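Quick one, T. Sequence first:
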Amino acid sequence: MSWLTGPWSYAFFRHGLVAGALAGALCGFIGVFVVLRRMSYIGHGLSHAIFGGAVATYVMQVNYYVGAGVWGLVSALLITWVGRRRKIGADAAIGIVTTISFALGVALISRVNRFTVNLDAALFGNILGVQPSQIWVLVGVGIASLAAVLLRYRPLLFVTFDPEIADTYGVSSRRMDALFSVLLAATIISTLQILGVTLIAATVVIPPVVARLLTDSFARMLALSTVLGTVAGVVGMYLSFYYDIASGSTIVLVAGAMFVVTFAGTAALKRRRLQALESAGSTDVVGGVGAHVG
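Structure tokens:
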């Protein structure tokens, strides 16, 4: 058991492990709504938009969570607002808002020559350098997200699967879309410095997709995706420690391995079921013909 407990003697590993597990769980939980809404690109796009906000907040010397929080929330609401226009669509809205915001961040980097911090953490994550305050932010966002989903479970479920019909039954799709935008923005803001812009999209999308392959129940999908995200975070941290690989990338690779195994397994199981049905159908036909001849 020394291989399991040995890394705990290092504070950076303990903090990284807790942060990886929490970030994986949070991304997996919120990611269910992203996947079922067929908006998988929004995690990638919104993280790029918030990167622009992170740069702007540093230039203005504003607290990261305050500045990036406002920036991310405005970006998410803009995506939702623009995407509701039928002539534009959600995918185009994501592309417009996020690329403008990211380009603004890059422009600020090129224009302002007084950066004393390494912005690589925002791009690629720095889970081994996570601070206790960042862990508490993850805990707070996780609790708030869980409470919001539990309190608005049925309306969120209704709008996720059939937003047009939801309005006719008195469920405001605009309010639920706004709530979803707030939850997603908070998730990305709290995990950006841990996983980075380039990896957040994967942690938001892969666990829910794996869960979707394993179940058709929305409630079970929420629970399973959260567990899978947590497992990816924990296993990824251990593999990163022992094989000296970037932690954020390892977490994503573990999640990717889960997808490959699940996809192959469910495909093989589906083929077996089809073969069994075909065999049973052939047997019934032969038996029916024999009975008729007899």
